[in-house]
TrEMBL record:
This is Asparagine--tRNA ligase. Pfam families: tRNA-synt_2, tRNA_anti-codon. PANTHER family: ASPARAGINE--TRNA LIGASE, MITOCHONDRIAL-RELATED, ASPARTYL/LYSYL-TRNA SYNTHETASE. It comes from Ureibacillus manganicus DSM 26584. InterPro entries: Aa-tRNA-synt_II (IPR004364), aa-tRNA-synth_II (IPR006195), aa-tRNA-synth_II/BPL/LPL (IPR045864), Asn-tRNA-ligase (IPR004522), Asp/Asn-tRNA-synth_IIb (IPR002312), NA-bd_OB-fold (IPR012340), NA-bd_OB_tRNA (IPR004365). The keyword Protein biosynthesis applies.
Length: 431
C-alpha cells in the first residue's frame, strides 16, 4: 500500500492509500463519521460509513479528539463538491497519539489568546493558507531573480553601522565593540553588485520601532536587490515586473489557499506591469484636494495618506522623487532639482501601504561623504562603503520589498502578524 500526502491524492483517484494525518475536526450523524484531516500539505475529508467498517473502527473514529495524530487507510474518491476534488473513504485507522484538551477549538477566540498559542494556531486552515502563500512568494522570488541573472548574496546580520542611522536599531556588544542587528543588507549588497553586477538577498531584518500598527513588525524579512549600471527609471521597471510576477505566481499556484481565505482574486488578476507613477509633489497636491490638511511639502506620508493615494488606483502605485530631508543619506539627487532625490515607494492597493522602497544610489565620492557628514554619521564606520565610490564607481540602484506586508496584501490578511510564523511585536517575544 502506497503512503502519500494529502496534496498527492488527486493523482490517486480509485486507489487504496495510506496517510499520516492530524484530525483537524470531526462530526458524526450516527451512521457516518466525517473526519477533517490535515497533514501539512493540505486538508481533506475522510468518510467512515458505519455499515461498511467494523464496530471497533467506527468506535475508534468517534473517540478521536481534535489534533489527535493517526495513520489512515482508504480509497481515494472523486468529490466534485469540494474545491480539493476528492475525499478519502476510510477503512482503517491506526492511532498514534490522542491529543488532550486542545485549546484552539472551532469557536471564536481573542487575538491575544491565539497569539499566546501561535505554535498551535499555525495549524488552522487560515494560517496554513497564509503560510503557503508566503512560501509561494519566496519561491517565485528566487525564480524571478535567478531567471533574470541575479546572484544571491547573504549580507551579515550583525553590523557595525546602519544604512539609515542607528536610532531604530537593536544594540549589542560584539566583544569590545558596538554592534547592531541589521535593518537592511543594502550597503553590503552595493559592494557585492560592484563585483557581480546584479545581486539580491533575502533574510531577516530588525527595526526597534515602538509601533503597534497592523503594518509593523520588529523582526521581518526583506527581499533586497542591487543592480550595477542601472538607473532609477530602469529600477522601477524591475520592481513592477517582479511584483507582477509574484502575484501571478500566487494566483497560479495557490488557488485553494486564496479561496480558503475568501480573497477577491479579481483584484489580483489586474496586477500586471506597468504600474502608475506620481511625483511626491503631485501626491501632496492630491491629498490637499482630498481635505488632508495635516500634511505639508516635506512631511513623510502616514498610513491614511498612503491609503487615500492608493484608492485612486487599481494597481500598486509608485510615488517618486521624495524630498531630500526625509530620505536616507545614500540616495542620488534629482539631476534637475537639489531638493528631491531619485527614489520611489511602491504603495499597494486596498490600504496595505508601502511594500517597496528603493532609489538610485549616490556614486560620487565627495557628495556621499558630504551626505554622511550632514547626517552626523561616523565617517570611520562607513570608510569601506565610501571606498566603493573611489574604485570604479558606477550608477547603480536597488530596492527592498517587505515580505510580510506583501503577503498581507496578496492574501488579504488584516495584520502582518499573521504573515510570519512567529511574529515579534512591540510587546511580544513569546512563543
Amino acid at each position: 500500500m502506497k503512503k502519500i500526502s494529502i496534496s498527492q491524492m488527486p493523482n490517486h483517484i480509485g486507489e487504496t492509500v495510506k496517510l499520516g494525518a492530524w484530525v483537524a475536526n470531526k462530526r458524526s450523524s450516527g451512521k457516518i463519521a466525517f473526519l477533517q484531516l490535515r497533514d501539512g500539505s493540505g486538508f481533506v475529508q475522510g468518510v467512515i460509513v458505519k455499515e461498511e467498517v467494523s464496530e471497533e473502527l467506527f468506535t475508534t473514529a468517534k473517540g478521536l479528539t481534535q489534533e489527535s495524530s493517526i495513520y489512515v487507510t482508504g480509497v481515494v474518491k472523486e468529490d466534485t463538491r469540494s474545491s480539493f476534488g476528492c475525499e478519502l473513504a476510510i477503512d482503517g485507522i491506526e492511532v498514534i497519539h490522542i491529543a488532550q484538551d486542545y485549546p484552539i477549538t472551532p469557536k471564536e477566540h481573542g487575538i491575544e489568546f491565539l497569539m499566546d498559542n501561535r505554535h498551535l494556531w499555525l495549524r488552522s486552515r487560515k494560517q496554513h493558507a497564509v503560510m503557503k502563500i508566503r512560501n509561494e512568494v519566496i519561491r517565485a522570488t528566487y525564480e524571478f531573480f535567478n531567471n533574470n541573472g541575479f546572484t544571491k548574496i547573504d549580507p551579515p546580520i550583525l553590523t557595525g553601522s546602519s544604512p539609515e542611522g542607528t536610532s531604530e536599531l537593536f544594540h549589542t556588544k560584539y566583544f569590545d565593540e558596538d554592534a547592531y542587528l541589521s535593518q537592511s543588507g543594502q550597503l553590503y549588497l552595493e559592494a557585492a553588485a560592484m563585483a557581480l553586477g546584479k545581486v539580491f538577498s533575502f533574510g531577516p531584518t530588525f527595526r526597534a520601532e515602538k509601533s503597534k500598527t497592523r503594518r509593523h513588525l520588529i523582526e521581518f524579512w526583506m527581499m533586497e536587490p542591487e543592480m550595477a549600471f542601472v538607473e532609477h527609471a530602469e529600477s522601477l521597471e524591475v520592481q513592477e515586473q517582479y511584483v507582477s510576477y509574484i502575484v501571478q505566481s500566487v494566483l497560479k499556484n495557490c488557488k485553494i489557499e486564496l479561496e480558503r481565505l475568501g480573497r477577491d482574486i479579481s483584484k489580483l488578476e489586474n496586477i500586471q506591469a506597468p504600474f502608475p507613477r506620481i511625483t511626491y509633489d503631485d501626491a501632496i497636491k492630491f491629498l490637499h484636494e482630498k481635505g488632508f490638511t495635516d500634511i505639508e511639502w516635506g512631511d513623510d506620508f502616514g498610513a491614511p495618506h498612503e491609503t487615500a493615494i492608493a484608492e485612486n488606483y487599481d494597481k500598486p502605485v509608485f510615488i517618486i522623487h521624495y524630498p531630500v530631508g526625509i530620505k536616507p543619506f545614500y540616495m542620488q539627487p534629482h539631476p534637475e532639482r537639489d531638493d528631491v532625490v531619485l527614489c520611489a515607494d511602491l504603495i499597494a492597493p486596498e490600504g496595505y501601504g508601502e511594500i517597496i522602497g528603493g532609489s538610485e544610489r549616490i556614486y560620487d565620492h565627495e557628495l556621499l561623504l558630504q551626505r554622511i557628514k550632514e547626517h552626523n554619521l561616523d565617517e570611520k564606520a562607513y570608510a569601506w562603503y565610501l571606498d566603493l565610490t573611489k574604485q570604479g564607481a558606477v550608477p547603480h540602484s536597488g530596492f527592498g520589498l517587505g515580505l510580510e506586508r506583501t503577503v498581507a496584501w496578496i492574501s488579504g490578511s488584516e495584520h502582518v502578524r499573521e504573515c510570519i510564523p512567529f511574529p515579534r511585536l512591540l510587546n511580544r517575544l513569546y512563543p
